[in-house]
Amino acid sequence: MSLESLMGGPLRVVNLGLELFAEELRAEGAEVVHVDWRPPAGGNPRLARLLEGLEELDRRED
User: Fold this and answer.
1) Cα-based torsion angle of the residue sequence 21, 5, 12, 41 in order, rounded to the nearest 10 degrees
2) What is the model's pTM?
3) Which residues of the chain have pLDDT under 50?
4) Rounded to whole angstroms, how far apart are CA atoms 41 and 52?
């Protein structure tokens, strides 16, 4: 069963993060827009909190 018949029409996808998913969908004939997104601070919660604190300081200075 193709993706098109499963979804009832051409599949159009916005893919965030892993490009491998976009490549697999393209290989199946889907129209894909890939966004190279990564979690803030590489997914490290401690560093993410520190970045949030810096952003808050920056907002206060504006």
Assistant:
1) -30
2) 0.58
3) none
4) 10
